[in-house]
Amino acid sequence: MNIKMVLLASAAAFAASTPVLAADAIVAAEPEPVEYVRVCDAYGTGYFYIPGTETCLKIEGYIRFQVNVGENVGGDSDWDAVTRGQVQFTAKSDTEYGPLTGVIVLQANADNASTQETKLDSAYLDVAGFRAGLFYSWWDDGLSGETDDIGSVETLHNSIRYQYETGSFYAGLSVDELEDGVFKTDEAPNNVGVAFGIGGTAGAFSYQVTGGWDFDNEDGAIRAMGTAELGPGTLGLAAVYSSGPNSYYSQAEWAVAAEYAIKATDKLKITPGVQYYGNYWGTPAKLGAPDDFDGLGDAWKVGLTVDYQIVDNFYAKASVQYLDPEDGDDVTTGYFRLQRSF
Question: What is the pTM of this model?
Answer without folding.
Answer: 0.86
